[in-house]
Amino acid sequence: MRRIIIQLKLLSKINEVFVIIFNEYIIYIKVGKKELKVGGNLNTQELYLFWRLAHYFIAVQEYRIIQLSKDQNELWLEKMENKNVRVIRLLCRNLDWSNWLQRDIELTSHNGERIRKQLGKGELNVLNLYFTAYPPVDDYHYRIEKPFINPQTSKTKVNSVIFERENLPLSMEKVSDLFQDTISFSIPEENIDQETERLKHEALTTAVDKIKAEKSMFEYGKPFFTYFFIAIQLIVFLLLEVSGGSTNTETLIKFGAKFNPLILEGEWWRFITPIFLHIGILHLAMNTLALYYLGITVEKIFGRIRFILIYLIAGFGGSLASFLFSQNLSAGASGAIFGCFGALLYFGLIYPKLFMRTMGLNIFVVLAINLAFGFSMEGIDNAGHIGGLIGGFLATGVLHFPKQKKMLQQILFLVVTASLSVGLLYYGFHHGSKLLNEQSTLFIAQDYIQSEQWDKASKVLEGYVEDHPDSAESYFLLSYAEIKMNQINKAEKHLLRVLELDPNMDEAHVNLALIYLNKHELEKAKEHANQAVRIEPNKAEYKELLQKVNE
């Protein structure tokens, strides 16, 4: 071992000072009998420990690299899923004085605070590891005994551990306790440089491979059908506007809006066509913007074909839920768009750590806001939103991820999806009258009456009044259809029910007067004719009817 001894004399002290330089270029000061280290280059043992622990954190604990210094002696790692230790900082450097150590801990705290703000975390625990041949020459223990808390926000905590030769087992024990694991390894006596390089290469390669694998999850497919569906929405909206208006009920029904009476009549395509219709420019703008952001993400993750199927199946699920739980006319891509949320939730189910680290919080917040908005505002078909969300989730479970197969799981999702769809359709078509409100029933019945389809009008109205016996207007239209079909006794019965509900409906009195006149029950005919004239004294046809009865 090469040794150079330089003898110095202090002006203020009698003690002789010796500076000893070893072949590792580690410098010591000897004052009397006390020997203190003050500097030197890094030792291969410390570099080995540095990369041995870095390899453990990256390969075993699955931490990700935030930053690596140019000299590769400082490494920052993060794993937001580990609340106890979200960030690790490793530094391989000889520590000379404790005041430098304190400044470095404070700097580490400031960097940790910056990371905390960028990630939007409430609190951040940083594990700060030093790898040095020897500790600082002066007293330093009090600086690392307790975690250092950032004085500005008190939200970033730095727990520092020094790995040095004399206390290596104790330092290992501290880190092991933090991770609830036994971290133990020996330092090789031979070929330590080669082993260090191997560990470094494996750690960095593993980290890069993980980054590439995660990045590839979001870049499987290039968006195409997202833009295709947006184009269809715009084209159909223009057609609606030139055909009568996108807010016109008759126009929407003509173009395929979800309308329960017509679905019950067999127009099953109305489970799909509403996806491409929008009611008003604001509705179109909001859904187009949502489709642009969500559709692109889903199409990139799952690919084009899977995106088409997820989008259409989710749209069907939204229309089916609206059919069952909303009696109003509805249209819009909202169900299909919520299906994109469902697809991303499935992504979170399979890859929860990656999901929460990349988009999870934002997805949950946006989804919650949209559902809350739907429940709190009138005129929004939240049943369709929830149906689309469930449909998208189930469809994604059936299709799974590109180039991946989980046959048992996919079959289970398929069975659940098919069973749920068939069961809900069966219920809907066998309890159709419960899915109609008065407005839609009267609308479709009047349409049938105008086209002289008396039997269809009668069928729709009979089903409705069976479950809604208090609708005077429905009974009246039913009686009108029955008169046209020469079912006079039924018409008489239903007209009397109309007058029970609404004694001042003049048209019901007129029709009853005509029925009784034809049946030669003149007193009853005269009574109802008089009532019609009393209610509407200015209608000449009512006076003519009364005169005819009197004659």
Structure description:
By secondary structure, this protein is α+β, with helices and mostly antiparallel strands. The chain is built from 21 helices and ten strands. The strands form two sheets. It has a six-stranded mixed sheet with strand order 5-6-7-8-10-9, with helices on both faces. α2 links the parallel β7 (87-92) and β8 (124-131). α6 (225-242) packs antiparallel against α9 (281-302), α9 (281-302) packs across α10 (304-325) and α13 (382-399) runs antiparallel to α14. The protein is elongated, with a radius of gyration of 40 Å.
Summarize the model shown:
The chain has 551 residues and is an alpha+beta fold.
Write the layout of secondary structure elements.
Blueprint: E1 4-9, E2 16-21, E3 26-31, E4 34-40, H1 44-60, E5 64-68, E6 74-78, E7 87-92, H2 98-119, E8 124-131, H3 141-144, E9 148-149, E10 156-163, H4 168-179, H5 192-217, H6 225-242, H7 249-255, H8 260-264, H9 281-302, H10 304-325, H11 334-350, H12 352-376, H13 382-399, H14 407-430, H15 438-450, H16 454-467, H17 472-484, H18 488-501, H19 506-518, H20 522-535, H21 540-550
Parallel strand pairs: 7-8, 8-10
Antiparallel strand pairs: 1-2, 2-3, 3-4, 5-6, 6-7, 9-10
Helix pairs in contact: 1-5, 6-9, 9-10, 9-11, 10-11, 10-13, 10-14, 11-12, 11-13, 13-14, 15-16, 15-17, 16-17, 17-18, 18-19, 19-20, 20-21
